[in-house]
Amino acid sequence: MTTAAAGSPRTYQVRTYGCQMNVHDSERISGLLEQAGYVRAAEADEQPDVVVFNTCAVRENADNRLYGNLGHLRPVKDKHPGMQIAVGGCLAQKDRGDIVRKAPWVDVVFGTHNIGSLPVLLERARHNTAAEVEILESLDVFPSTLPTRRESTYAGWVSISVGCNNTCTFCIVPSLRGKEKDRRPGDILSEVRALVDEGVLEVTLLGQNVNSYGVEFGDRYAFGKLLRACGDIEGLERVRFTSPHPKDFTDDVIAAMAETPNVCHSLHMPLQSGSDDVLRAMRRSYRSEKYLGIIEKVRAAMPDAAITTDIIVGFPGETDADFEKTLDVVREARFSSAFTFQYSKRPGTPAATMDGQLPKQVVQERYERLIATVEEITWAENRKLVGETVEVLVAVGEGRKDERTGRLSGRARDGRLVHFDAGSLAGQVRPGDIVHTTVTYAAPHHLNADGEPLSHRRTRAGDAAEAGRAPRTPGVLLGLPTIGAPAAVPAPSGGCAAN
Fold this sequence. Notes:
The protein has 499 residues and is an alpha/beta fold. 32% of the residues lie in helices and 19% in strands. Strands 20-21-18-17-16-19-22 form a seven-stranded mixed sheet. It has a six-stranded parallel sheet with strand order 2-1-3-4-5-6, with helices on both faces. Strand 20 and strand 21 form a beta hairpin. Helix 8 packs parallel to helix 9, helix 9 packs parallel to helix 11 and helix 12 runs parallel beside helix 13. The chain is globular and about 60 Å long. The chain starts with 10 loop residues before the first strand and ends in a 26-residue tail after the last strand.
């Protein structure tokens, strides 16, 4: 296709890289663009009028990935006058004007603190036929006040805070997301209720460090109170949160998890390393004994809890003995899953200039040993569930082989991925419905349930999925300007037209 004809809505596409925060930010970007009159491009559309890259700066080669994708788009844009490209997210916050210098065909660069400015920046760039770069140093509008186009009918992200007050030496996030800013509890609960009113069954509370929530208004028990308050919301069936920091984990949060029926018994708590020396070098203000003590308390209160984690291998100065201590903690913690990473330098972090940077082959060998150890444990833990009944919230696109095998997929209450046979219910089960079924087989990363489901409950989320409706939360723009469906703007003739 060519760009939109005069008077017809312009189309957009958002391409997301990185963490759950970025996924949720992309929902806000979509909500902003649709409020401004844009419409989402069809999946097969290779030439939308606006392409937005929501970037990550944490992963290795993030820069190369972005500029490679921008390079692929250049000839597409050259053939379609009026097409616009915008770059936002953490890499935009870090690289700023360098993006336009390296890729001058980019129209807009915006940062993590001013997502709400995107529609105006796009319009300004079109009017002035010049790139717009706007990077703020602090939060302009709390992101959750922005309109949001939710991607799921049954599960929603809700930010309780943005930014981080920690100074981990491997992490660039605090410099890109800023200091922690907390939302008021009433605003959070209002957003959760709005999602439930739309049919959403599951909410995940998001923050760079969720269990330090309340630091801004001086209540160190605010997060536990928030979990309990979520338990009072009728129709909300599952509450999750990510990610807590072990240094801020308090017993009242464990009690809230155990005593609030809709809070899931699943916990993602980053370990990063099992060596106290490495944790000290990482500036992680806990030690392995405290970490394992939290897990012990969680399991005492919730024996069925599934605990997942993040682990970095090959941090500068990590010795063979340090790595063995990580394996020891993994064996003792018995995680149900682990996200494992090879350390990579991120410019701008203290760790990037530390002595003791390890050779790639050493890091690779340790990484492979870690994966083997983790999978041995996760497989053993999953096999304990064979023969057990699980409650599955049916999902979209969780299983890559589902189409070939005829199975559907979803998540159990503890967060485990379950592939199940719908049996006589084939064609009746929708994403967002609830199924009870029996586990018949376990693999390291998933469970299978190949017998006839024990029950199937149709839900409002399933009705919405069947009708093709996505939840939308309107947000409050707090004075930011909005625009209608963008109309074609003539090239400026000079003078005032260019201002």
